[in-house]
Design brief:
The protein has about 700 residues and is an alpha/beta fold. It folds into 3 domains: about 280 residues, TIM Barrel (Alpha-Beta Barrel), CATH 3.20.20.380; about 90 residues; about 190 residues, TIM Barrel, CATH 3.20.20. Helix content is about 30%, strand content about 20%. It has 23 helices and 31 strands. The chain has an 8-stranded parallel β-barrel, surrounded by 5 helices. It has an 8-stranded parallel barrel with strand order 18-19-20-21-22-23-24-30. A hairpin with a 5-residue loop joins strand 13 and strand 14. Helix 1 runs parallel beside helix 9 and helix 9 packs across helix 12. The chain is elongated, with a radius of gyration of 29 Å.
């Protein structure tokens, strides 16, 4: 089982390698989810790869952000550079970037980032079909789900075992984007989840979105038995000393050791938020999982000791064999071989006749084992010596240094990379004329007579609601298509009731679903449904749209993090939809915000729970229909009904109105405004990100 450690800087990389990492993951200056780490320039990246490969450590490059069309040429340059440097894998979130990596560097493995929101076997299978050789699972999965996925997976599985936990499913958090224009999907998360909030009114002592750090140091044997290929430590924004301490602790356990209470205390001192949690892994969510960083812990001595592990000396982690041949009248010969089969040779001086003492195999071995200061450990010496010869120790040492230097150069030399030229995907202009209308509701009770009379092209209704209202297909016009909104998260163990509901609505005549992640594409196709893509797929570029076209999607809602010019840039390879009204979903949480407040499951209450921040802004909390997961919505609704004209001429197929907390009267008012143009009220509404964009 691979130990994968973070490297936010060259110093952190050395800390990881010297303390037992099998692989490191790092980011370049751009296109990574920790853009505020020190990261690696082009020259730094080359140095990092050489340093790691010499020591038998793999390097995974993070390309785990959403990439805009105008950024693709620059992303292509980075991919080609990284492949030529010899990186061992790309970690990717964006579907378009997966396509780009496969095109430009087809031999470099692609790992599906946790930002892809893969939380089921179905999602893993879809990622495998996409070309990914490894999937980094969502951190919210319990042990039984991980075990099920590992048993059935066609690709390697990677699991986070230590470090920060996000309250929201990775890749599905828009809180930082909407309230501060800093997108977590673009590597700029401002971590507003670590701030205090209150329920209904601001409370400076409540931190209902701040989770303790993950710690699965006691579960490694279980993960190994499951078949997990790689365990991952979070922390590219952390200090090198932290990386050293945590990596060393997990290496100890992987090597068969046990962590003592003092070791666990060191982990907490290095960084924690009022201790650690294994709540997700054990399926025990709740208030015990929450904590915040406590300042004032004295780390000076601990960090000084950690620095010594990578600043003083070089761990000898690569076993090598020496082969020596010393013959009378011939130059001395020495060779070294590493575990990978690399063999390097050199010649020395001709040995002299011994006068006082002959060179013995023991003498030779003693000199050849002096590999301190290098990453190599002499494990064996095989020699062939003629008798009564003498060779100075200085000559033996020089030969040893020469072959070691040649071996180091060979191990650090990148294999020739197969690189292809960058090309632009075919351009699809989309649909001419005025976009059509689509409507999404949260409950069947929100479907009004006025709504039906407007004959929206598609009416999106949650699957659970649709299954409970068999009369609904008869109520809608033949000009309106019904589409079932799938729950945003469907674990493999939760698939059975979803499958029953899908069969029910199929028998009702519904033939379309709205899917927001890769796993749902798999589920929908297997059940015989046509698929429309939702915002959760995070589509921001033309290459991603081309992938969806290849998958046969009927339409795709573009990310609401895009600006109007960026929407125009996106090729409409499938009919494109944008949201112009509704509450933006900011977080999707496995840990129930409502239960943590009340102590009971009360998410079916008519009145939503509201979180309140220090500015007095309120964020309604509702359950995701059909599940017990929480969705935190923006307090102000997105309103661009009065700006419909701005979306004309972009090739868009449809404009969507989304209703969440609105009652039928409020809904009818919005529908009326859709026809009349409406009026923007800054006190109740927001323009979203279509003009101001995100970083």
């Amino acid at each position: 089982m691979e130990l994968l450690a973070p490297a936010g800087s060259m110093e952190a990389l050395r800390a990881a390698v010297c303390n037992g990492a099998d692989a490191v993951y790092l980011g370049a200056d751009t296109f990574n989810a920790r853009i505020n780490a020190r990261n690696f320039s082009a020259a730094d990246l080359q140095e990092a790869v050489v340093y790691c490969h010499v020591r038998g450590v793999k390097v995974h490059l993070t390309l785990n952000t959403l990439v805009l069309d105008r950024e693709m040429p620059r992303a292509a340059e980075l991919i080609r550079l990284a492949a030529s440097c010899g990186v061992d894998a790309f970690i990717v979130q964006d579907l378009g970037m997966v396509s780009l990596c496969r095109q430009l560097a087809p031999d470099v493995p692609i790992h599906a980032s946790t930002q892809m929101s893969i939380h089921s076997l179905e999602g893993v299978l879809e990622a495998a079909a996409l070309g990914c050789s490894r999937v980094v699972l969502a951190r919210e999965l319990p042990a039984e789900e991980i075990a099920h996925i590992c048993k059935k997976s066609l690709v390697e599985i990677e699991v986070f075992v230590h470090g920060a936990l996000c309250m929201c499913y990775s890749g599905q958090c828009y809180l930082s984007s909407v309230i501060g224009r800093r997108s977590g999907n673009r590597g700029q998360c401002a971590q507003p989840c670590r701030l205090p909030y209150g329920y209904g009114r601001f409370e400076s002592t409540r931190y209902p979105l701040s989770l303790k750090d993950n710690c699965l140091a006691g579960e490694l044997d279980e993960l190994r038995r499951m078949g997990v290929a790689s365990i991952k430590i979070e922390g590219r924004m952390k200090r090198p000393e932290y990386v050293a301490i945590v990596t060393r602790a997990y290496r100890t356990v992987l090597n068969g050791g046990k962590l003592m209470p003092s070791d666990l205390q060191e982990l907490e001192t290095a960084f924690s938020r009022q201790g650690f949690t294994d709540g997700y892994f054990r399926g025990q969510t709740g208030s015990d999982m929450f904590g915040r960083r406590q300042e004032g812990e004295d780390t000076a001595d601990l960090f000084a000791s950690a620095r010594a592990t990578y600043e003083q000396g070089e761990p000898q982690r690569i076993g090598v064999r020496f082969y020596a041949m010393i013959r009378r009248g011939e130059p001395a010969q020495l060779a070294v071989e590493d575990p990978d089969g690399n063999l390097c040779r050199t010649r020395g001086p001709v040995p002299e006749q011994a006068v006082y003492r002959s060179l013995t195999p023991q003498d030779l071995e003693q000199q050849l084992k002096k590999t301190g200061g290098t990453p190599y450990l002499c494990t064996a010496v095989r020699s062939s010596l003629d008798p009564d010869l003498m060779l100075p120790a200085s000559a033996i040492n020089a030969m040893r240094r020469d072959v070691i230097a040649e071996l180091t150069a060979k191990r650090g030399r990148a294999a020739p990379a197969r690189l292809n030229a960058y090309d632009e995907p075919p351009r699809y202009d989309g649909i001419a004329g005025e976009p059509q209308l689509t409507i999404a509701v949260r409950t069947a009770g929100q479907i009004t007579s006025r709504m039906l009379s407007m004959k929206p092209t598609v009416l999106y209704v949650p699957l659970s609601e649709l299954a409970e209202h068999p009369d609904l297909p008869q109520r809608v016009s033949v000009e309106t298509q019904l589409a079932a909104i799938l729950p945003r998260v469907i674990w493999s163990g939760e698939l059975a009731p979803v499958a029953r509901q899908l069969r029910t609505v199929y028998e009702m005549g519904v033939r379309q679903v709205l899917a927001g992640n890769l796993g749902q594409l798999h589920i929908a196709r297997a059940a015989g449904f046509a698929v429309r893509g939702d915002f959760g797929l995070n589509i921001v570029n033309s290459r991603a749209m081309r992938y969806l076209r290849e998958q046969g999607l009927d339409s795709q809602l573009l990310s609401f993090e895009l600006t109007l010019p960026q929407i125009r840039d996106v090729s409409k390879a499938v009919p494109a939809e944008v949201l112009i009204y509704g509450r933006l979903p900011l977080m999707l949480t496995e840990n129930c915000v409502i239960r943590n407040r009340t102590g009971t499951c009360s998410c079916d209450s008519a009145a939503p729970v509201k979180l309140t921040d220090r500015m007095g802004e309120e964020f309604p909390v509702l359950k995701d229909p059909g599940t017990c997961r929480s969705v935190i919505y923006n307090g102000k609704k997105l309103y661009l009904i009065d700006k419909k004209e701005a979306f004309r001429g972009m090739g868009l197929w449809a404009l969507r109105l989304s209703f969440t907390t609105e009652n039928p009267g409020e809904i009818d008012t919005i529908l009326y405004q859709y026809h009349t143009g409406g009026v923007f009220d800054a006190g109740s509404y927001t323009r979203g990100l279509y003009s101001r964009g995100v970083e």
